[in-house]
Amino acid sequence: MKKFGVIAITTLAILLTGCGTSQNLQIQTISENDVSKISIDSTANFSVSRVVVLANGVAEIINALNAKSILVGRDISSTEKDLKDIPIVTSGHQVLPEKVIELKPDLVIIDASTGPRAALDQIRTAGIKIVETPESWTLSDISKKVAVVASAIGAPAQGDLLNQALNDELKTSTIATKSRIAFLYLRGTSSVYLIGGPGSGSDSLIEAIGATDVGAQSLPNPYNTMTAESLATLNPDVIIVMTKGLQSVGGISGLLKLPGVAQTQAGKNQAVIDVDDSLLLSYGPRTPSLVTALARAVEAVTK
Amino acid sequence: MKKVAPTILLVLVTFIAIYNGAAQIENFWSALFSPGSNEILWQIRIPRVTAALIVGASLALAGLIAQGACNNALAEPSILGTTAGASLGTVLAVLTGFVQVGSLGAIACGALGALLATSLTFKLANLRSKLSSFSLIIVGIAVSAFFTAAVGLLSSMVTRADARSISFWNFGSLALITQENLLGISITAILGAAIAWRVSPALDRLSLGDSTAFHLGIDVPRSRLLALIALSLLAGGAVSTVGSIAFIGLAAPHIARFIYGPVHRKLIFHTAIIGALLVVAADTIARSAVQPNELPIGLITSLVGAPVLIALVTMRNNIWKTQ
Question: How far apart (Å, rounded) are the C-alpha atoms in residues A221 and B107?
Answer without folding.
Answer: 37
